[in-house]
Structures are given as C-alpha cells and as structure tokens.
Amino acid sequence: MLPNSPLLKLFNIKYPIIQAGMVWVSGAKLAAASANAGCLGLIGAGSMKPDLLRSQIIKAKSLTKQSFGINLPLLYKDVEVQIEIALEQGIKIFFTSAGSPKKYTSFLKDKGCVVVHVCSTPEQALKCEQAGCDAVVAEGFEAGGHNGIDEITTMALIPQVIKELKIPVIAAGGIADGSQVAAAIALGASAVQMGTRFVCTHESSAHDNFKQMILQSKPGDTRLMMKNLVPVRLLKNKFFDAVEQLEKKSASKEELAQLLGKGRAKLGMLDGQLEDGELEIGQVCSMIRDLPTVQNCVDQLIHEYSLAVKRLS
Amino acid sequence: MLPNSPLLKLFNIKYPIIQAGMVWVSGAKLAAASANAGCLGLIGAGSMKPDLLRSQIIKAKSLTKQSFGINLPLLYKDVEVQIEIALEQGIKIFFTSAGSPKKYTSFLKDKGCVVVHVCSTPEQALKCEQAGCDAVVAEGFEAGGHNGIDEITTMALIPQVIKELKIPVIAAGGIADGSQVAAAIALGASAVQMGTRFVCTHESSAHDNFKQMILQSKPGDTRLMMKNLVPVRLLKNKFFDAVEQLEKKSASKEELAQLLGKGRAKLGMLDGQLEDGELEIGQVCSMIRDLPTVQNCVDQLIHEYSLAVKRLS
Lengths: 313, 313
Description:
The structure is a homodimer.
Chain A: H1 6-11, E1 17-19, H2 28-36, E2 42-44, H3 50-63, E3 69-73, H4 79-88, E4 93-97, H5 105-110, E5 114-119, H6 122-130, E6 135-139, E7 145-146, H7 154-164, E8 169-172, H8 178-186, E9 191-194, H9 196-199, H10 208-215, E10 222-225, E11 232-235, H11 238-248, H12 253-260, H13 264-270, H14 294-311
Parallel strand pairs in A: 1-9, 2-3, 3-4, 4-5, 5-6, 6-8, 8-9
Antiparallel strand pairs in A: 7-11, 10-11
C-alpha cells in the first residue's frame, strides 16, 4: 500500500521507512531487525568506540542478509576511524549529522557510498544538496535527541525543504504511527525516519526502565532544552529539572556543560538510571503504548497507513 | 476532491476548511469572502468593541448569503455583551478560546448554537468534549498568535487528540498549502483551520505593510515568546528583540506585561507599524509568497490537495 519512492531502490528496501540511528539504543539487533522487516536499519555509531562499531556491524551482518547503514554524528574525535571501519566492513549507506555535509560527502561518494545528511532548515538542506548528498533527512522541532535552533516543526518544514531541493527528502520528527507516515508522504516526503517508535521495540537496546517510562509518558512530558549549549529534547526527570533550574537563572554554556558532564545519555538510556540520566526522546513518546517486535511494529504501521489513505478521498 | 466530513453539514460548508477568527485581521470582508468560497468564515471578535462587532456582523451578512461564525476569546471583559450581540444578530456558530469551555458552552447550545473550543493538549480537548462542545480545534506549537504552554506540534498533537475524543477534531497550526491540508486529514482531522494563509489574502484587514513583511519572511523568522506571561508566536522585529532581551534576563511577568503595554497587536497588525508593533503569525509565514483573493486561495488549496493525495498510493 505504501507509495513508490526513489529511495526504495537507492537503499534496496521494501518500505520507505528508516529506523533512525540513535545513540545507545540502536545497535546491531535493531538495525538487522529493521532491515529484515523491509525498512532501512541504521546502527547509531555516535555512541560507539571504534572496536564496538566494528563488532556491531559484524553482528548485524550475521543477523540479516539485507543491506543496512550507519548514522554518524560528525562531531566526535573518532569519526575518521569510524568511517574507515565502516568502509572496511562493506557499509555503503551513511547518514551523517551534527557537522558540515561538505566534510565527508565527496569522499564517501567516491567510495561508492550513498550519503544522507540530517538538517533542520531549508537553508541547511540546500547545503546538503550542494555538497552532493543523495537525500536529506529534514527533522522537525518535535523530534527527539539533538535538534535545530529554529524550532521549525515537521508540518511547516517538509514542504519548504521540498520546494528548495531536487534530491529526495526524508521526514523526521513527530512520526510514530501510520497516520503520521501518511501525513509525511502527503507533505511530499519520499520516506520517513522514525526514532522514538523504534526505541520501544523488542530489539532496541534501550534499557527496559527507559522503555517502561516512555510507555507511561504523557503529552507535554518532553521539552527542548539546553538551547544555548546544544539543543536536545528531553523526557522530564530529575536531571531535566536541574537543567530547567539552571536555565531559569540564565546559566552560561559552561554551567550547562558542567551539569551535563560526561556519560549522561548512556546513564539514562542504556543503564536505565531514570533520575540522573539524560533521556532523549521525541514528543510522540506519549503515543507509544506497546513494545512490539520490529516486524509487528512495521506491520502495524502499514495497516495504519492504509486506513489513513482511505480518509483522504 | 476533499473528503466528506461531519463538519460540512454541521457548518453548512462545501470544504472542510475554516478561516481562523483572528484579532485585527479577520473582519466582515474576510469572513464573508471565506463563506462565499465554500469555507467557514469567522469574524475575530477578540479585538472588537461591542458596537464594532455588531456592525461587522451586519456588514458580513450583506456580503454573503452563506452562514459564518465568530471567534470569541473568553478573557475579555465584554465577552457577555459580545455573545448577546452575536445572538441578537443571528450568529449560530461560536468558536471560543482562551478560557474554560465549561463557561458558555451549555448556554450557547441551549440557544441552538454550534460551539467549538480551541485547545492545545489532548487533556484540554477531553474537557471540551465533556463540556458539550460539538468539535474542537486542536492547535499545534507552530500556530500563530497565542499558543499552549506544552509546545506540542500539530503532527504529534492531532492523532493523540483524536484517540481521546468522539467529537470531530479540527487541525490548526502549520497549515498553509494543500499538502498540509492533506497531511492534517491523513492524521485524522475532520477539517483544518488556517490563519496565516488567510492573513495574506486580498480581503484580510491586515495592514499591507504587515502582509508585505510576511511575503519577505524566511524560515525561522517566528518564535514562541512570552511563555511566562501568555505564550504568543511573533514575527521577529524590534518589539520581538525587546521581548527577547527581557527574557534573557529572566524578566518577571510584570516586566513583560509592562513592555507589552496596550494596543501592541493593533499597532503592528492593523496600523502597520512593523518595528514597535506586535506581529502575531504562524511558522508557515515563510511559505506565503502571494496575496490572492480568498476564492483564488481556496481554488489553489483544492488543487494542491489533489496533488498530495496522488502521492499517497
């Protein structure tokens, strides 16, 4: 029932659905399960030391015969080693973020790879196209994790990005069910990238405490915080309250960075320390009420998509 | 091409499109033109003294044989006089906002009126249903003017509101073209309410300076401000900068209220003082690049809607 898309061939996938590559929650198991379910699976390399990335890619290859990719934030010091390992392991699909698309796109394209960069404004999207990217992920304000500073929502963003670009646009932010997939396609997106929904699957490596907290979350339980440091959407907890207190006092970047410290996201999302950890999640967390396998999740999305399409005419 | 909706009969309209009732920009001319184009037109009563409201309703009746309604923020002191005048003039459709839906819904329903209340969370929406409203407008973070404090975007909000309610849901926020109308319907909305798009029509009473500034606006040129007083989405100008400066210093409610003063919105939106006035507008302002008649605007929306529907299967 889902429409044809130039990205199906480019990524060699059945459905125009991309499982976001996220820190701490999207390892080999999730990426392979997503690939096996007909989606593009992405290993979130951002939180992985080079050796772990290598072993996760090898593990994913043992779990699926389908292709998968990696998400690579460009701000870590190990990024060039990570690229080397991914290429050595035969990875052909790179989703890059948190840096300039000019930096590695040509290099990766020359190696025969597909390169997609994440952006949050039409202006950034145009820079991705000019850098030679095959597609962009345009991510709205409601998305989890790190976020743009202009606060443009998915509904407002996607048509404006599409108007500027010739390359395909992947919509992200606010997409957890099939009606939202249909809405993104109606806006002109060639595919969707979903994070929060895949965090709450059987195969995600998020700590069960974190998954259970998402299942209990209510609308309005996330907020975009640390806009003066690096904007990030957080689920409300004790750490969130501490950030809020600092921000109310107009804290400096340095004070925020000191509070954040190192390893907060791992503590919350992987270790399940729900009070002191940083819990990155999208606004749609309050829609998630089950922990299906990825296959069941995708089946459900396709079913909901077909119901949404029927509403339109 | 637009789908059937229970609201077509309820409002006696051809298309499930509602022209938002806004302060200073939606008087008799705009409401009548919207009604004549097959949409629901709303007179924005919020900025009108009782006598002006009466004369605007009389004028609108002279410009259209179709029914139209009024938008009534419940926070003004004249609200009961406004209701009396609207009833005396035969108004049967009331969109209420900025107050409790419990306050006047039963009274208006007893007079044979249709009552719709504006909300920004699923919890508020449920209260509207319980108060006896016929429908709700669920308005996302990207919307112009006054806004909820939970920052939930249209994409994330609509499916969650629909899940809670039995009555129809009207989507608002981030809707300026036909692809966004289609996206809202895909999300499950029974209709859309559009503000920013109708501000930039021939028949809107927004000052031409304001309209021209919208045509020049770029993505990211609005921001939700004054969250500690009454959240409002503003177009960036000198007044915006002054608000921002105060907020960076963690200003009190009183300081913000003092800066705002009285008549700021009229100064900007009606009088066209683009620096010192308050310019309320939605994130989609940067999509608006023309000033059509309402009829041409609606024709274009229907055309774009049909293109969007084709993308879906």
